[in-house]
Design goal:
Low-confidence stretches: none
Distance between the termini: 29 Å
Largest sheet: 10 strands, antiparallel
Shape: elongated
Number of helices: 0
Length: 189
């Protein structure tokens, strides 16, 4: 269940509130994740077969001037596996010309890990649920990047309009040792 409410505060600011509740039932463990116990025995990840997740997202879009728009968001997340998360993000749109927009962005995420997580050779074989998947651990992540949007607003063929092409590059670092460079290209018609 996902809801949303948006309110125009004044001619320069819009705020949005987006709560969400998700219920999952079925195989939620990943059978190829091996767990090494503290007695050197081995098993596959075991997690409960039900999960309830909730999140709340607040967005504030601000039109600063004729060529500068700030898109800010704050997202809080919790589930019954014990995971708590908080994300703060900003994307700024800087119009260079009517067809060209520069899109710098940044995102910071903090997660308190699942009560079922423990690192390599830490779990006891007597535990009912266990995982060593670092996606369910404590970590912090930051993403920083830049994008470029070209919007010619031209008809390419009869009624088919080419709205925009967006190139993005971002760098992601996670405190668990994961680093990534991400390139994306998207087309809008």
């Amino acid at each position: 269940l996902s809801l949303g409410y948006t309110q125009i505060l004044n001619k320069r600011n819009t705020i949005g509130f987006f709560p969400e509740v998700t219920y999952q039932q079925g195989l939620l463990a990943t059978p190829f994740h091996r767990i090494y116990f503290n007695n050197d025995s081995l098993a596959v990840e075991q997690l409960p077969n039900e999960r309830l997740k909730t999140s709340v997202n607040l967005k504030l879009n601000s039109f600063i001037s004729g060529n500068l728009i700030l898109k800010n968001s704050l997202n809080a997340y919790a589930d019954d596996f014990g995971i708590l998360g908080l994300a703060i993000a900003n994307e700024t749109a800087i119009k260079i010309r009517p067809q060209f927009t520069l899109l710098p962005n940044a995102r910071w995420y903090l997660q308190k890990g699942s009560k079922y997580f423990a690192p390599y050779k830490t779990h006891a074989p007597t535990e009912t649920y266990f995982t060593s998947d670092y996606d369910l651990s404590d970590f912090t992540t930051y993403n920083m990047g830049i994008g470029f949007k070209y919007s010619p607003f031209k008809y390419l063929y009869k009624r088919w309009m080419f709205d925009a092409i967006i190139f993005r590059y971002s760098y992601m670092h996670r405190s668990t040792g994961l680093d990534a460079h991400i390139l994306t290209v998207s087309f809008a018609t």
